[in-house]
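Supplementary Text 2. Reproducibility record for the structural model of the 319-residue chain.

All settings were left at their defaults, and a single model was retained for analysis rather than an ensemble. We include the record here because the model underlies the residue-level annotations in Supplementary Table 4.
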Amino acid sequence: MKFLIAGAGAIGGYIGAKLALAGEDVTLFARGPHLKAMQEHGVRVLSEEGGHQGMWEAHPRVIGDLTQAGDADVIILGVKAHGLTGLAPSITPLIGANTTVLSTQNGIPWWYFEDIHLESVDPGRAISNSIPAKSVVGSLVYFATDLAEPGVIRHIEGNRISLGEPDGSRSDRIKSIAEAFIKSGLRAPVTTRLRSEMFVKLLGNAAFNPISALTRATLVKMAQDPPVRALVAEIMTEVSAIATRLGITLPVTIDQRIAGAEAVGEHKTSMLQDLELGRPMELECIAGALVELGDKLAIPTPNLKAVYACTKLLGATVK
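Retained model, structure tokens:
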């Protein structure tokens, strides 16, 4: 199976390195110093995983121009949501009749709804017009990685990536991707309830991520501060109301979701990490999409709107 990682940063590069080390045909697409470093030294991974403790490396093909990609059975979109709008048109020529496009996007991805368009997620329909819906399968990433330096990916924790067809089926294509991932050492369960699982993750991200950016607080500090914990619960209540209107059943309570975040401990959310590193935050696909959905469905989201507005302003003023 031929894999193209379109956006081989911390997440995409880690997946690509694991697949390449397992013998899969992998091409990584990257830019800048990260591209140059991987072309010269391969992908180097700092990890404490069993069997690969310390630093290990893989040597997949690395390109800086997507026109050089060639055919691929699976294109893994490794860029964050705000980067996909610009990248998507370059992906179109690479999608053949049997090509699968695997989304790793946080929040609500562009393909989530068949009958609702979210401008906050897919501005001007640039993504949906570029990537055919029939080509897409989704995923939820449950591991933490970052770029220690160009060409070096630090694996912090976890190795699970849940895979799911938008229609909830267990297709041959998704089984094949899961088999390749499992062969590479990743946990890759195939779920028939991807949309529901995405909302469970979103339930926490919509509350904790923007609040963490505003306060610089870790998960445990937010969960253990009574006024902030109450605000988190209010936002989760608003998100739950949206899920209910959409017919999505959430298998956890708000108290359970908060307790789960508290148990993670002194962990900075990805949104806070992006803010501290001067990178754009994944705000629109998480909070912006829910605010837009609430307005479309006539569901009040006053707490979410307030936190979203403040975080959006913060992103525009802090460099």
